[in-house]
Amino acid sequence: MKTTSENKNYKAVDIGPLAELAKHEFIHPKFKTRDKGRIFIGELLQTTGAEISFRKLPAGTVISFLHKHIKHEEIYVFLKGSGQFQVDDDTFQIREGSIVKVSVDGSRALSSNSNEPLVYMVIQSHQNTLAAYNVSDGYRVEGNVKL
């Protein structure tokens, strides 16, 4: 992972190809467990309203515990592979292109049940803080586009 460009209003990073996610390893700060194929980038990006992570879950792997969050809802964006997702007592299929939002009160787990790894991104944000949907928070500004 490296910073590719930044100034006071942005930061751009490169985590490398998604096919190489397995090279990354996350060590859980509380349980000290090693989680290969997982990377968190909120701290690297210096985000102030969201955490973002990427994960490559090997084929046939089941996340064998349920979990919740105290303040963060999670949005799962599935980029490759397929599997199953559980929220509370509901279980449903997920695949490339599936997107799932889970509230803080939802107990969640997932599995990769295809012949290829399940690759996904998770965006955590503080629940009930969104001020507007779609483009209603944006506005045009004067300036020269230099692309």
From TrEMBL:
Signal peptide: none annotated. One of its GO terms (molecular function) is metal ion binding. This is Cupin domain-containing protein. InterPro entries: GPI/OXD, RmlC-like_jellyroll, RmlC_Cupin_sf. It comes from the Bacteria. Keywords: Metal-binding. SUPFAM superfamilies: RmlC-like cupins.
